[in-house]
Amino acid sequence: MSHYVTTWSSSGRQFNMNTPPALNQASRKERERRQHEEEILVAARELFARKGYYNTTLEEIAHHAQFGKGTIYNYFSSKEDLFCGILIGLLNTAVEVAESSIALPGSTRDKLTAYAKAILSYSEKNADLFHMIVREVVQLNFLEQSPRMSGLRNRLHKTWEILAIPLAKDIEAGTLKPSDAVHLAAMFDNLLRLHAMQPFRELFLRGSMDVDTVAHSLVDFFFDGIQQRGQNQ
Predict the structure, then answer these.
(1) How many other C-beta atoms are found inside a 10 Å radius of the C-beta of residue 228?
(2) CB-CB contact of 211 with 120 (8 Å)
(3) What pLDDT was estimated at residue 204?
(4) pLDDT per residue as tens digits for the range 189-230
(5) CATH for the stretch 1-76
(6) Contact yes or no for 164/181 (Cβ under 8 A)
(7) In 3-state terms, the chain is what percent helix, strand and coil (to 5)?
(8) CA–CA distances in Å: residue 133 to residues 5, 92, 138, 227
(9) 176 in helix, strand or coil?
(10) Which of 113, 159, 168, 220 is least buried, going by the fewest C-beta atoms within 10 A?
(11) Which of 85-89, 125-129, 166-170 has the highest mean pLDDT?
(12) How does residue 1 score in pLDDT terms, banded at 50, 70 and 90?
């Protein structure tokens, strides 16, 4: 039986001795790895946005992140892998926003409006990221062959599955037209993402975006098409 106990160091920090030292060490190394990986991704994102994907080298990313080039390969196999890592980070954010939005009280319309507002606000604050993705992703044929592609698809579908939860309940209740809830969620999310992309918005809008107005307009447009006649939400 283990005899580990909780003790305190001279600095006042508490150590849970119920956890073997080897596990504490592994946890610290994992935290350091995640931190270094995030620092590299931030550096890559900044340079891709400023110079473009093709005009940025791994050496420049390493220098910007204050790492040696060899260190980059401990975390990412290539520049393409780095770009996919940025996209996965963006999709992870969408999953988190979807989860928090769907957990809110209110109708399905309220939940999707909250999601739309959060995504649009995020796109406003990270316009450089969205602009870079639109500018570069259409030229990047490697994405389909990337080992991270399945991860990208999984995160995207995870968002749709979360958004589909309240839609499925409304379909079952008869307030929405019979349809595949995940398909509806994908349609709504793609409509929202298209509008969130800065270059597309600049074709139609002038000045900053009124997030509340745009979010409500998108949700109203979406529900006008899928709502059963005579039903109000």
Answers:
(1) 15
(2) yes
(3) 46
(4) 988 888 777 544 554 445 566 788 888 888 988 888 777 665
(5) 1.10.10.60
(6) yes
(7) 70, 5, 25
(8) 51, 16, 8, 33
(9) strand
(10) 220
(11) 166-170
(12) very low
